[in-house]
Write a structure and sequence with these properties.
Blueprint: H1 2-5, H2 12-24, E1 28-32, E2 35-38, H3 40-46, H4 60-63
Antiparallel strand pairs: 1-2
Length: 64
């Protein structure tokens, strides 16, 4: 859906991988199958209230 709705130049697999990493960083969370929503931390980050340098880094080995 993201690829088509936002005209993203990324494969479905790449988008899935990035969503998994964002979920591991607690910026989004799965709500159903492959659907995600922003967490409170994710909203605060987008609003400029959270500095990502001070947040735990996602662990690629866990999600790939």
């Amino acid at each position: 859906m993201l690829e088509h709705e936002l005209s993203m130049d990324a494969s479905e697999e790449r988008i899935r991988e990035r969503c998994q990493l964002l979920a591991d960083a607690d910026l989004i969370e799965p709500i159903h199958s492959e659907m995600y929503e922003l967490t409170t931390w994710g909203r605060l980050y987008l609003e400029g209230e959270v500095d990502a340098r001070n947040q735990p880094r996602p662990r690629p080995g866990r999600v790939l």
